[in-house]
Amino acid sequence: MKKYVLPKLLSALRCAVLALGTFSAFSMAQTTPANTSVGAPKPAPVEINIVDKKATAETRSLFAFLQQQRQRSIMFGHQHETTQGLTITATDGTQSDTFNAVGDFAAVYGWDTLSIVTPKQEGDVVAQIKKAYARGGIITVSSHFDNPKTDKKKGEGMTGTAWDQTPAVIESLPGGAYNDVYKGYLN
């Protein structure tokens, strides 16, 4: 490992150790989603104030859990926790830089849809996501859709890509000229 990378990695790992110390304090039963095979009891309905009044019971439960946790701990998260890293030798969902440093996984696992939908530019991570979920991890999924207003102009630098900054949000909403293109991305 190059000598200038090691100090930055060690500093990041120290932060991870501090954050994970608080994560380890609460049990898998509290963090395990209700429909996994781990056997955690389904959480009782909690009265919460959430923007989406049609949110599922699982979403409401997660929101209540996050509200509860913020009073007493910090949850550490890591993008591609078990599939990309400097110290992992297997990408089957059993290792991570965090685990290899402190003996526990991050509380929050992030993945990108580039790893879930074809052409799976970052490899297929569905099995790793299921393992993270089964161990009680909170899963986040991000996406890098192309700019719906300019995606037909690809090949002109960043034009048409997810990094194209041509304003398109308003025109991508329902009733906008590019809403069908945006809905096509979602499909």
Question: Can I get a quick summary?
Answer:
34% of the residues lie in helices and 7% in strands. It contains 7 helices and 3 strands, in the order αααβαβαβαα.
Verbal overview:
- The protein is mainly α and 187 residues long.
- It has two domains: 5-142, no CATH class; 151-186, no CATH class.
- Helix content is 34%, strand content 7%.
- It is built from seven helices and three strands.
- It has a three-stranded parallel β-sheet with strand order 1-2-3, covered by helices on one side.
- The longest helix has 19 residues, at 5-23.
- The protein is globular, with a radius of gyration of 20 Å.
Total number of domains: 2
Strand content: 5-15%
What is the succession of H and E elements?
HHHEHEHEHH
Stretches where pLDDT is under 50 for at least 5 consecutive residues are: 1-40
Sheet with the most strands, sense and barrel status: 3 strands, parallel
**Tally of alpha and pi helices:** 7
On the 0-100 scale, what is the average pLDDT?
Answer: 75
Number of beta-strand segments? 3
Gyration radius from CA atoms, angstroms: 20 Å
Lateral strand order in the biggest sheet: 1-2-3
- Inertia-based shape: globular
Helix coverage percent of residues? 25-40%
Terminal residue distance: 42 Å
- Broad structural category: mainly alpha
